[in-house]
Amino acid sequence: MYYPHSQQTVWLLDNCGRIVHSWPDTVMTPGNSVYIKDDGSLLRCAKEPGNVNPIIQAGGAGQYVQQKDWNNNVMWQFEYNSAGVRMHHDISIMPNGNVLIIAWEYKDALQAVQAGRDTALLPTNQLWPDHIIEVEPLGSNSANIVWEWHAWDHLIQDYDPNMDNFGVIADHPELIDLNYTEHSAFSDWLHINAIDYNPTLDQIVLSVPNFNEFWIIDHSTTTAEAAGHTGGNSGMGGDLIYRWGDPRVYDTGDSTDQKLSFQHDVHWMDIELDPNDVDFGKILVFNNRIGGDHSRVEIIEPPVNGFNYTLIPGNAYGPSATSWSYTAPIPTDLFSGGLAGAQKLNNGNFLICSGRQGWTFEIDPSNNNEVVWEFVNPFISGDPGTQGDVPGPNQNIHFRLNRYEPDHPAFNGQNLIPQGYIELQPDTAFCDSVLSVGIAEYSLSPINIYPNPVSDILNIVVQESTTISLFDIQGRRILSRDLEVGTRQISMTDLPAGIYILRSEKSDFVRIVKTE
Fold first, then answer.
1. 176-211: pLDDT as tens digits
2. Which of 182, 349, 459, 505 is the most buried (most CB within 10 A)?
3. DSSP per-residue codes, 451-482
4. Are residues 386 and 457 in the same domain?
5. CA distance linking residue 281 with residue 382, whole number of Å
6. Closest alpha carbon to 230 in 307, 222, 211, 108
7. Domain span at residue 464?
8. pLDDT tens digit string along 237-288?
């Protein structure tokens, strides 16, 4: 599933790149992330065209969190966009149905100077520090803000002893240096671009690319505790309970200790990963700007100790090295200066999305990181291109691309028959192979089939009376039959060789390979 830039529709594709479902729109564009819930509804960040906020406007800006059902009806919509705040980049869906939202908040020059900001770092006379809100959806267009956290409550500075937050930065790794600005000295100070919630720890991880770090904060606090320095499971209130990526931002270490560079898509590998996986509970990140010319995917195992993280005073947070990383064989072949993400799949492979390149691929780490699947975003400047077209720089970008298993609860009872391709003049030959990695082969109760592949007679074992339909690779219905309990047969003799889809009203789809 992905939500390409410069167009309005969210797309669900099979592994052949064929459309199996979509949530079209004629107005709103990405703002940026999109997720599917277990009930089959969609939650996306979106914005209207034009300058919807003349004060707060930067890359990744959003306007609405919108929930649509499977049939594209808007169930709920919440706008968080005004002269004083604006949501951006990413959200996280919590187990209780609430939504965590990243947002900027406006501070004028007087507020920034009083907090200890260096006046040389205020060229626009304003600052937009980030904050997080947790919203409880209400009705169709409202929400309660039930919890919030503000970076502005956890500052330190060593610039002006006469202003607020003055102190020794190295003595306070739990606080945020107000005058650290490697990537930007302008209004968008932190540019938090990813958020994820860990229900086991009741903690939130945030990707802070302008600091080359990710942070973990304690969500078990009350809002009042989140504004202070005590309380919650960690006992640290809303202070940073863990940070990793570049310890220089808290005046520890040197350039050799920097591990991250403008990273994206920081998240725990938990909810959608098998708990028995060796990486379950670790953190995955797309590390965008290594050396300024290539990207890397990394796994980090934080030194968690109960609800806190081990830190030796005067030292950087560990670990000193990643658990696993992937760099392309020719490192510069994989480079996304912004956007991008990665996902570990339940088959042990990794799905890597290089957003600025419009390129997503799957590698098998058990087989020398062989590329086993890849996909190029066919939208060029928002319009479908012809297969084989080579887009110019940043013409086919997208924020992320996520894989969902065919047995995901969202797809229960839904029609996932392919509806054709996005691109013009598609080359469909690769999907006609027995080795196709398109629709997964499933045989679920109450029907089973054999043989598969089949050349003449297909046997269908029916445990409950049902109606079955057979479709060709283009989604055209070939036949439909009402079948009673027992072993029934369908002749495939006169059908051309290729891929067919059998679907029952009481079962999932089954891919059938027809041979000569």
1. 999 998 776 689 999 999 999 999 999 999 999 999
2. 349
3. -SSBSSEEEEEESS-EEEEEE-TTS-EEEEEE
4. no
5. 37
6. 222
7. 441-514
8. 999 999 999 999 999 999 999 999 999 999 999 988 999 999 999 999 999 9
pLDDT tens digits, 48-61: 998 899 999 999 99
Which residues 6+ apart lie within 8 Å of 332 measured at CB? Answer: 293, 294
Using alpha carbons, select from 140, 77, 152, 67 the residue that is nearest to residue 116.
152
Q: Which of residues 411, 432, 463 is at a domain's end?
A: 411
DSSP secondary structure code for residue 426 in this structure: -
Residue 260 domain-assigned (yes or no): yes
Q: Indicate whether 431 belongs to any domain.
A: no
Residues 6+ apart with CB under 8 A from 256: none
Q: What is the pTM of this model?
A: 0.84
What is the torsional sign of CA 112, 116, 122, 128?
Answer: negative
Quote the distance between the C-alpha of residue 294 and its chain's center: 21
CATH code of the domain covering residue 263: 2.130.10
**Which of 392, 411, 430 is at the close of a domain?**
411
Rounded CA-CA distance 137/155 in Å is 31
Residue 308 CA from chain centroid, whole number: 26
Q: Which amino acid is at 18?
A: R
List, in order, residues 6 or more apart from 424 with CB less than 8 Å away: 384, 385, 386, 387
Q: What is the CATH number of the domain that holds 486?
A: 2.60.40.3080
